[in-house]
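Handout, section B. The chain below has 419 residues.
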Amino acid sequence: MRPSLIIATALALCLPGAALAAPRDAAKGKAGAVWQGAEGLRAEQLALLEKLVNIDSGTGNMDTGPKVQAMLGDILRGLGMEVRFVPAEAPGLPDNLVATLKGRGKGRLLLIGHSDTVFEPGTAAKRPFRMDETYAYGPGVGDEKGGVVQGIMAIKLLKQLKFDDFAQITFLIETSEERGSPGTRKLIAELVQQADVELNLEPGQPGDAVTVWRKGSSAFEISVKGRPAHAGVAPQEGRNAASELIHQLLLADGLPKSGDGLTSNLTLIQGGARYNIIPEDAHATLNVRLRTKQQGAEVEALLKRNAETTLVPDTRVSVKREDSFPPLPTNPGTEALADLAGRLYGEIGMTLGRGGNGGASESALAYEGGIPAIDGLGPINQGAHSERETITLASVTPRLYLLTRLMMELGKAPPPRLK
């Protein structure tokens, strides 16, 4: 090396900020510290996932659901986080877990995951965690225990890298997401106000995509009141509530059942009390997924208009609406986060897609609270809520890299609030 070049290099290293540039660059790409650390944690990550999947934690499981939360709390406490358990805001639910870690930077990051699944007690014993060359299987492996474990590993990786260029990381692991988070709404609203950005650990979409929009979810219960009568002796004296319910469902049958827009699907139906009595009562629930809040108002108005037209005389029809999650609409804040995520994924030579789906999540609540949110950061998942549920093993390390790099960049330079 020429003397002038040696001097120039030495001077450059003495410039303000020069010492910080090298470690940041060294963290990037497959030759960098983040990827190497993520690979080094892979076996531990999958082992923890196996432990969690093999413990039933369906929403409302008060036998073993708290065991999962306690295990996660111990792990996060061992990573130096302050852990507190917050009682659920609805009865019959395990406590929510909130873990916080202070740093020295600017960004206040909120990670949200859920430990509850849709599966009944005993499912883990029937279908325990297993892997083949391509997939990991088991109840809740993708939705969302894979994402929860990934969040833990990202925090562990930051600790290993001695990275603390963030103001605070808050990790919420809640226990009622699969029912629309009835046990966590006030807590989420509180945590959102203390954060600059929300990173949601719902599973990644097939095609290696993050989720930039989600539908809202509402339940519309149609109830019919009729008149009971002996089905053999005097059926003419009855007013069949079940028959009128069928009529009401036919009136609503024109609503779309699939696609990226509004959808409406019959999910629950009940009618009658005994086989020899004309049904006095009948009920049905339509699960309606909404791209906009206005669509919810339009469906409600349609069903109430339908209720005014009965086919069975002297029956009365009522409609009750219960909202779960609002929509996460396409918005500039989420798109900017997706742009950043795409650039970071490119550091390891991978292309990140973006899309949306009808599965509602807490990201919509974060957006409503005024902070940018991005969803679908967990491992790639297929077959959620079914016996076919898997995560793609090839996505485990790349997705851990992506989440960790997002936390690093957003910790240093948080995005502005939406409102």
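Note. Residues 220 and 321 are 5 Å apart (CA to CA). Compare this with the example in section A.
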